[in-house]
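Our consortium's second objective concerns turning raw sequence data into structural hypotheses that experimental partners can test. To show how far this objective has progressed, the report includes one record in full. It was chosen at random from the queue rather than selected for favorable results. The single chain below, 206 residues long, was entered without modification.
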Amino acid sequence: MKVQNNSQSIMIEDLSPGISLGTQQTLTQVLAVALKDTLSSTNNTPKQWEIEPLETITAITQSGAILLTISSFSFQIGVGLHFQYDEALTSYLTELIKATSSTPNKDEMYDRLGEIGNILCGHIKREISTFYPYLGMSTPNFLSKDSLHYLSAAGFSSSVHSRAVLKNKIEFCASLFVKASSNFGLDINQLQSTQSCHSSGELELF
């Protein structure tokens, strides 16, 4: 299925019948913006990260993943950050950590990956709280990518995915897995209005 968003054609998976096309579009935008904001804030390279939507999870090749959850009374959203622990990633993480540790070890690098996952989940939680204000958020869990396929058996039948690439060297992917009742919905117009208020410095009251 294609969704037009700011003149960009976005491929997303068909979600369950209870989730509207508008909700699909909103989830896709929330994920892309949150992924770019998260990675840009970690190394001050906002214009260098290239973000693209992915059609399905099969397009994600990384073997490692961090999973967090955002929960409400009527839905759960799994937030997945995918990574490949290789030389390029360790070099990238070393640059992030070197301010506090001259020779970071593997535990410190995984701690930093967990922090990145926390930031990503926090960004998404903030946006979704526009529609659902009472949300809980888990701590990060490190899993293999193959483990994520079992989410469908747990009722997470809906998902959207994005990829972020820095200088054709560093790559992260992110996913949102949704388990929701039929009345779950997100309005992209309301989201864009809220983002406009934040960016213009207007005070929004709830």
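The partners drew two points from this record. The first strand starts at residue 2 and ends at 5. Residues 38 and 119 are 6 Å apart (CA to CA). Both points have been shared with the crystallography group to help prioritize constructs.
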